Amino acid sequence: MTTQFVKRVPTVDPSLFYRVQITPIRQRHLLWWDTHVQPQINRLPHRADQGWRWQRHLTTARLAGFRHHVRDFALTTRHPSRNTEIVLGFVIVATQYPFLPNPKISSAFLWFCSTIPSSVLTQHLPPPLPKRLGLITVDMAVTLAFRNLWSGRMGTHAHPQGGRPLQQFYEQTCQMTRLPHHASLPSWGRRLFMVNDGRYYYLDEDAALTFSHRLTHLRTME
Amino acid sequence: MATPMHVYNDIAGRYGVDPTNDNAVDRFFMYRVPKLPKATQQAIVDELFARNGEPLPRQTPKRTASATRSINQPSPKRIVAASSR
């Protein structure tokens, strides 16, 4: 089950879920995001992805993809009555990257991710709204790490714009371990990041398995 | 950490694109860059990586939360019709 993406996301009502699809990012996803979501993110003061233009991240990722085996995904759902597609988030993952605490072995690296703000979601879906979208975007990287036989090992970086709350999300919600500030970063190939600013996090094999099991009930439709 | 958006504008500007036109810069990276010679593409990627974490050209307000921390758990007022159960 650890190699299956989630098929549904929870809502505040424990008996209700939204079906979701996880597919490569398409131009229609970017267009919808740039029209409905990113302008509102840009007005929110507390977002790490403020000012992002996903088309650029996607181009960079695809150009670098031959080296780092980069995959990109859109997390989408559909409006219950209108059947329109709603983009819940984007993820870009380097699926073969040196494991942060041990560069001799491989891992997945969560490079970029964004989730739709709830204030925007309320404009496009009726309540109860999908929740735990941040956790699910991290799970996409973990799942890819299991698929690649990296035993779920993954790493990521908490963007400085995210401040302490983003670190708390990785530490407390995702139960990740912070790479010591003095640790050097992998130098294999071209690095996605140049310096260790003390905001790198990872899940080792055991932690990844625990993390993945938390979402097992979302990997089936029942 | 994301390469700041202004780095993309700088690079596009060197290829004759108006760096103040974000949409033109987007189109440059979407359509033109993938058609450039591989060595040129690699040089662009190298610069994007090398300038990762570069400070913004102007001061921005301090931000204290994250993309993935903005998810709330609102109280539902009615049951969603999209239940998949």
The gross shape of chain A turns out to be globular
Number of helices of chain A: 6
How large is the count of helical segments of chain B?
Answer: 3
The overall pLDDT of chain B, averaged over residues, is 71
Low-confidence stretches of chain B: 59-85
Mean pLDDT of chain A: 91
Major sheet of chain A: order of its strands? 3-4-5-6-7-9-8
Rg of chain B to the nearest angstrom? 19 Å
Written as H for each helix and E for each strand, in order along the chain, the element string of chain B is HHH
User: Approximately what portion of the residues of chain B adopt beta-strand conformation?
Assistant: under 5%
Helix content of chain A: 25-40%
In quaternary terms, these chains amount to: heterodimer
What is the CATH T-level topology of chain A?
A: Aminopeptidase
Biggest chain contact: A-B, 72 and 46 residues
Strand content of chain A: 25-35%
Domain tally of chain A: 1
- The parts of chain A where pLDDT drops under 50 for at least 5 residues are none
Written account of the structure:
The complex is a heterodimer of chains A (222) and B (85). By secondary structure, chain A is of the alpha+beta class. Helix content of chain A is 32%, strand content 26%. Chain A is built from 6 helices and 9 strands, in the order βββααβββααβαββα. The longest helix of chain A is centred in the first third of the chain and has 15 residues, at 27-41. In chain B, α1 (5-13) packs across α2 (22-32). The chains are: A alpha+beta (222), B mainly alpha (85). At the A-B interface, β2, α2, β6, α4 and α5 of A face α2 and α3 of B.
Give a quick summary of the entry.
Chain A is 32% helix and 26% strand.
Keywords:
heterodimer; A: 222 residues; alpha+beta; Aminopeptidase; 7-stranded mixed beta sheet; two-stranded antiparallel ribbon; 6 helices; 9 strands; globular; B: 85 residues; mainly alpha; 3 helices; 39% helix; 0% strand
What topology emerges from the helices and strands here?
The complex is a heterodimer of chains A (222) and B (85).
Chain A: E1 8-10, E2 17-19, E3 21-23, H1 27-41, H2 54-68, E4 70-78, E5 85-99, E6 102-115, H3 118-121, H4 133-147, E7 154-157, H5 163-173, E8 177-178, E9 200-203, H6 205-214
Parallel strand pairs in A: 6-7
Antiparallel strand pairs in A: 1-2, 3-4, 4-5, 5-6, 7-9, 8-9
Chain B: H1 5-13, H2 22-32, H3 38-50
